[in-house]
């Protein structure tokens, strides 16, 4: 009987949201124990463009990637930042990195690019905005990023350190 009641209440939560009684539906979904009902209600809320509520339910159901993706849609950067340690998707980390870069929050962008394993953008960020050439060199050596090696070579060339520039051009397979 308890399982039957749970199923009925989860249906009630979904239908409450669909029929416009969003508050009641969200409260019912929050009170239920299952993750699936939270996800289902969050999907409906997302379709209704209720991104904040959808993100909250995704987070309650421990669907962190979905919660962060919805927060990105809602431009709730602070909430995305809170969720990032639990997010596994490199795509979401990369999107957050682009947003932080546009907001001139370069350290946060660099961390996001590192978590996304987007080494080209990480190297560019380290060289162009954070003045961390040693870290950029380390990233290029570890990742074997071809574009990153070209950026480091260009950086050394501008400094007049042509020997280092040539080393990184060789690493990048750029034979010009």
UniProtKB/TrEMBL annotation:
It holds the Pfam family TPR_IF140-IFT172. Its main location: other. One of its GO terms (biological process) is intraciliary retrograde transport. GO terms for cellular component: cilium; intraciliary transport particle A. It is found in: Cell projection, Cilium. Residues 24-170 form the IF140/IFT172/WDR19 TPR domain. PANTHER family: OSMOTIC AVOIDANCE ABNORMAL PROTEIN 1/WD REPEAT MEMBRANE PROTEIN (PTHR14920), WD REPEAT DOMAIN 19 (PTHR14920:SF0). This is IF140/IFT172/WDR19 TPR domain-containing protein. It comes from Ancylostoma ceylanicum.
């Amino acid at each position: 009987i308890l399982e039957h009641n749970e199923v009925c209440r989860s249906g009630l939560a979904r239908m409450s949201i669909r029929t416009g009684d969003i508050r009641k539906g969200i409260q019912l979904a929050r009170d239920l124990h299952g993750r699936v009902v939270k996800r289902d209600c969050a999907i409906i809320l997302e379709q209704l463009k209720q991104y904040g509520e959808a993100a909250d339910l995704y987070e309650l159901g421990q669907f962190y990637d979905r919660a962060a993706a919805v927060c990105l849609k809602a431009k709730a950067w602070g909430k995305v930042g809170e969720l990032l340690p639990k997010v596994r998707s490199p795509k979401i980390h990369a999107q957050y990195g682009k947003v932080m870069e546009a907001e001139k929050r370069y350290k946060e962008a660099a961390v996001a690019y590192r978590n996304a394993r987007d080494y080209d953008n990480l190297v560019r960020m380290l060289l162009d905005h954070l003045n961390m050439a040693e870290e950029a060199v380390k990233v290029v050596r570890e990742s074997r990023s071809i574009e990153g090696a070209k950026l480091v070579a260009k950086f050394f060339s501008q400094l007049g350190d042509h020997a280092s520039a040539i080393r990184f051009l060789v690493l990048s397979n750029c034979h010009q």
